[in-house]
Protein 1
Amino acid sequence: MTSLTLVRRIKARPSIVFDALTTPEGIACWWGPDAGPVLVAETDPQVGGRFRVRFRMLDGSEHESTGEYLEVVRPERLRMTWRWRGGAEDSGESLVEIRLRAVAEGTELTFTHSRLRDEESRRSHEAGWTGALDKLERHFLGIDQSSR
């Protein structure tokens, strides 16, 4: 088993970033590694609640992930199980933890995906999450947060 950790600085308050991580409207703005659309985003961000997200990549392939929220501390932390649904991608259940910390520029987001099967799975997930978190960062650039 292996894991990966990515850190981003996002130009928005933690409560606004938290909403982008936990609401269908927020998820639709950033989920997925490239500019392809989110097709389905369902969330129930409470301990024991579930999420399901399906997206289409620019190459036309579709991917779906599901999981259960294990810890929800608004606006500081999310911890949830993670599993790809169907196909060769399904390598069993893993764990995603996201920590948000207020900083002068907005929010420091620390994203950890652990219990990944092997190094190949870690590399694949790192590429995907890097693309998604880049989109999350870009989503908040140029948005006026003072009115929120």
Protein 2
Amino acid sequence: MRYVAMGSVNNPTEAQILEAEERLRLAMVHSDVTVLDQLLAPELLFTNHLGQVLGKQDDLAAHQSGKFNIEVLTPSDCQIQLRGNVAIVTVKVHLIGSYDGTDFDNNLRFTRIWTLSSKDTWQIVAAHSSLVI
């Protein structure tokens, strides 16, 4: 399932963010560290649902090593707020896979902050995930 914003997409920037979110989804499912490297800003701060703060290299290493394996990542309820060269995305995802040999099947809510880089590409500078119960 592709990313779809709630309501109609009338803004070209919003369409770019939806495309970036879809590229991120596919890169996560396929552990494509080349694409992840492009989408994650060097200064990324990610607080996961366990309260751990991770950086870009932590995320890339988990995918590269095979420690993080995603089988299903289904987005829903995506909302986008645009503020100049910043986009704030909140999205609910159904995530199935394993981490370090432990299986998971969870619903999570992600908030991601995308900024326009000096190369005019969208990158995530901060993110947070919470378990949806």
Protein 3
Amino acid sequence: MSKKDEILNAAIILFAEQGFNNTSITEVAKATKVSTANIFYHFKNKEELFLAALENVKDGIMSHFEEYLKSIEFESGLQMMEEIIAYYLYLAGSMQQWFLLLHSHYPYRLALVNEVCRDHLEKTYNSLVDIFERAVVIGKEDGTIADVDSRKTALVIFSMVEGVVRFKIYNLYDSGVLFGELIKCCNKILKYKE
């Protein structure tokens, strides 16, 4: 792993656990056993380091999802949706720092004034919703999902799953207990016919 990657990994953990304002470049340097000058060699300032960490999280989540989707053959769009939900919850549990950083308040505040940050967030969420939407489209084609608006339905289901992820990363509820009910609710949405 390169020094730049080590710096990014340490920054993700520190930003996720302490927040942007409470994390100093000195702490990142200490965690990676490099000088602050070395960090500034790779990143112009703390904000640029934060943005790179955020992009790294997006790339990591999408890379995991791409590998996962390549490794499984789904029988139907409905089964794909159920598996995607399960995998997303698994990923949020196994890569908790990534999701803690993604769900912290700071990136959304920064996105109001920083186009790069806004772009990272939009790409992250659009890419994830695209995966959910793909399952809806496949399910509509194979008849396991009703004729619903693919994008809006994917957004609603993703929002529900994100809510459970927030419960998980902030240790508010046991997401494993909610999983069965989440799947039932999603199935009702996907199979509902007017």
Protein 4
Amino acid sequence: MLHPEYITGFCDGEASFSVTLSPRKKLWEVRPSFSVSQNKTSKGVLFQVKDFFGCGYIRPSLKDNTYKYEVRSLKDLTLKIVPHFEKYPLKTEKRKNFEGLRDIVNIMHRSEHLNPKGLKEIFRLMEKINPGSKKIYDRKRLRELMNV
């Protein structure tokens, strides 16, 4: 079993904390994610990380010959991933991405992502996690949907 501080150190270098959005007719689908990628020869450590957290899944990525461990379940993010990184904090700039993800997960846990105010806060936090990303959302569509 891996030590919790090893997990945090490993994730400081290899993990990603992200949130993607998909526009729907009246709502936005918010999908937070914690993931760690490794090349094919090092994929064994991903199984150890998965065992440590007791959740998530591992899948191959055909585009770059890597494997990815990913947790997308709101329940698992809330009960396992967020508490781990609060108890064993990241040391690099990745901490800001984690904090943004944590805040979004908390908004979703309270179901506030279903109202315009909560959704606006999620968009604001996403800009901090992924500044300048064009894949995050369409600002014009957001204004239309939220009457901003």
